[in-house]
Specification:
The protein is an alpha/beta fold. It has a single domain, classed as Rossmann fold (3-Layer(aba) Sandwich), CATH 3.40.50. The protein is 44% helix and 21% strand. α2 packs across α3 and α8 runs antiparallel to α9. The longest helix is centred in the last third of the chain and has 21 residues.
Amino acid sequence: MNLSPRFWPIFFEVYEHLPRQGPGTRASTAKALKMCRGLPSAPAICDLGCGIGAQTLDLAELTSGTITAIDLHAPFIQNLQTKVERRGLADRVKAQVGDMSQPDFPPGAFDLIWSEGALYNIAIREALHVCRGLLRPGGYLAFTDAVWRKANPPPAIKAGFDQDYPTMGRVQDVLGTIVETGFELVGHFTLPDEAWWTNFYTPMEERIEELCAQYAQDDEATAICNQLAEEPRLHRQYGAYYAYEFFVTRWTGACA
């Protein structure tokens, strides 16, 4: 699909203003964290693809650990750094620009790797190999991933995911990859539909409406805004066909 050169700047005009850059809730983060039993009292945590860090800050409140949060988009990191400083968390939370496909950390640096809605960017199998190298034996990896819930999704939905996530599978596909890459499954659960709306699609629609007014005399920008508005509209209509699943896994230290 050929995108206008203005697509990504307007995309980020939307996403930089959202509380979350993907589906998620504090309650879901807390639920997954509780599955990570036996962590050190102050675990070393890495949040890969952190966005503006909604879940990063939740983890800082829910644990006594140190958190390194990385994202490739510098404005997301600047946003998170500002919030970290305002909350007096600079001694425990470090936000830095980085490529999660090649994170610049020594092997075995972390007790827990966290990633909500981001690992698909480098493909789940490759991402799990990357994460395995960063974990200490017995360390946890908790991540969310989009999965199909029904066969034969409507063409509009299939086309959208084929563009953004062509290798998207079902829960069982992800579970198979987890085992094949040497991880032990601890548990998994489906994010509730509110995880899509409260801090993601509802503010997204509000932000798009603001930009539509701002760009009312700009046909190209208006068309891009309408294109972005399709995502929440289609989810409202066809959300039963797909979901976000939270997977909690553990690396025992055995080679796959």
